Prior knowledge:
The structure holds 2 protein chains of 2 kinds. Chain A has 17 helices and 17 strands. Chain A has helices at residues 20-32, 90-101, 213-217, 222-230, 237-252, 258-286, 290-311, 333-356, 359-365, 373-378, 383-387, 395-398, 419-446, 503-507, 511-515, 520-530, 534-538, and strands at residues 6-10, 13-18, 38-46, 51-58, 65-72, 79-81, 104-106, 148-154, 160-166, 173-177, 189-195, 198-205, 320-321, 324-325, 466-474, 477-485, 497-501. A 5-stranded mixed β-sheet of chain A has the order 1-2-5-4-3. Chain A is globular and about 70 Å long. In chain A, 50% of the residues are buried. The model of chain B has no long low-confidence stretch (mean pLDDT 80). Chain B has a domain at 54-172: Rossmann fold (3-Layer(aba) Sandwich). A 4-stranded parallel β-sheet of chain B has the order 1-2-3-4. The N and C termini of chain B lie far apart (44 Å). Chain B is α/β, with parallel strands linked by helices. The interface between A and B is large, with 48 and 40 residues.
Amino acid sequence: xCPQAQFDTVDGLLQVTVDDALWxxxxxxxxxxxxxxxxxxxxxxxxxxxxxxxxxxxxTSTQEMVHVKVATTDRDKPMLHSVSDIWAVANYQEREAxxxxxxxxxxxxxMRRFFLRNDWVGYPLRKDxxxxxxxxxxxxxDEQNEDYTCTYVEDENGKVxxxxxxxxxxxxxxxxxxxxxxxxxGVLRYRVSLDGEMVKKVDVVSGYIHRGIEKxxxxxxxxxxxxxxxxMDYMAAHINRHCLCMCIEKALGIEVPRRAELIxxxxxxxxxxxxxxxxxxxxxxxxxxxxxxxxxFRERELIYDxxxxxxxxxxxxSYSTIGGVVADVHPDFVKDVRHACDVIEKNLKEYHQLxxxxxxxxxxxxxxxxxxxxDAINYCITGPSGRASGVHCDVRKTHPYSxxxxxxxxxxxxxxxxxxxxxxxxxxxxxxSIKILRQACDKFEQCEGNEYVADKVPKMIKxxxxxxxxxxxxxxxxxxxxxxxxxxPKPFQKPYRLHFQSPCFxxxxxxxxxxxxxxxxxxxxxxxxxxxVIPDIDR
Amino acid sequence: MEVKKPKIKSxxxxxxxxxxxxxxxxxxxxxSGVNVVVGKLDQLLNWSRSNSLWPFCFGTSCCAxxxxxxxxxxxxxxxxxxxxxxxxxxxxxxxxxxxxITYRMAPVLKRLYEQMxxxxxxxxxxxxxxxxxxxxxxxxxxxxxxxxxxxxxYLPGCPPRPEAMFYALMQxxxxxxxxxxxxxxNRKEKRMEYVPEDK
Lengths: 539, 199
């Protein structure tokens, strides 16, 4: 297809290294001919002599993956070709790469910063970033609205020119929502253009909780980086940590004991239950059903108790570690899990009685905020929101990890793609999680040995040079970790680049699409049903 | 009139270990002396104020989930008269800052604090707000919200347990009980500070 490209196999996946000039055509062919229709991960990397982007592509019908590396050696004004016209998810992802590395994407419709203030000096994830606090002090003056945007256009001769554009037209009526707003579930800001009560366009302004986790990880050892995974999507703390542990284990070639793997899996499913219960509580409260919120939280306390007894903390448990888990489970663990399963299963009926059949709830959710299957794939929407649009995207089924292929459970798929479907997928997934937990309890009791951590884990973790990518099914979608190591022989090796591909970052990409031509009041229900966690977006 | 150490129902005074701060406030009050009538009225006002503290919903990350647990049935903030979480700073008595404050959020937090009506209090909830916590080395995290706004109670933990949040709340109640309301707490901010110079 592209004879100039270089092909290797890294980490069990085909790696294509291609020149930037050929990249856009190759990308188009990869999508049209080979049907790599989903851009799963886009990670910018600074290789010191060059700078570029690693793209992970997925074919959603065969679940094959391939990754493409595109780089440029120009450090002063690095430019690559945008693929946002091919995969829509690249729109925000490329803005992230621009924000962190200063890579300009030619042909990108909206080349603005995403996480940092527009008056920020420098590009923080570059290796030569100047950390001098005088360059970027705490600015207490109010930030100016970004009304202007720009696009870089290339003509036939290869000359790139900057074309200015506007985010909103002068005669548009723009309403500001957030960053301090009860129903944005944190600190996210929308600028909504309205026509009467109908939404015409939503401009997402993010970064109010951008904490620079990826940069901080580059100055910590591997076991130290684990703690940040729990503070991104705190409602998928165990799952995210599991993912990074698996990625490091894959790089080291460590095999985790079966008992540890079972414990991790049960913790993951408990976390998913807790997350979906919270999502139920928040969604109902956003629509005014305050009572339902208390029901959801009542059951969450049961799960918190299990975490509390085994891990010693209710949130941010720090339980998984490289090679297994930190400590063995509490003696009553299995009993508690079975009890929690029984209680939640019984009470799920109550939830449906309380909210699902409610006339107001149905009127506000059925047929509102429809996301089609093609759009969901194009915007890389995974997790419950993707499955509500009919995409087969459960990583537990598509790329089975841990022990999931031993378990009998169904992938919940709906085809409506509206707010109601997204809500119902979560409710049905809880039933599946309970099913998995019950099977896991049986397997756990039969499991021989009491080894909870692999004994071959080295004290100093040193990875060989290379890069790895690992995906798991977090509570809100596919969570990916891109880990690159330079094989540094010094005792305390640090990751060269650690990129977290968070599901919520993709979820806000469809807010504009789903809210358009709906009422402003529906913006609340749609975003609540999409169910994102802001620190996971901003990292 | 002598001001006594404040009493909190169902928690003994000895249970609070480190209270030099409250003690110093009591000493300060006793040193300045107060009229019996004004003092009694002050105590009545402070008693009512300390038992109806309305929090401002300001959650940026993990701590906000624990705060929601605080509002739910098991922990039930309503026992302390603090269940009316307000979404507008105008209606709130104190701001419990839950979660990391980044450089981008800093001016917003400052503005929200300024919008709150006097007397207003701040609880720095969680390690991030106390000192930057695990994100201290980041390029865009404020290392403790006391760099931006004054803090009354520091509450460490990542995230703090709901019990710890109650401790912070009770500590704030105690502080309110030993302040001079009339002519004191409600006149903290100087009026001239916000008038632009050219006017």
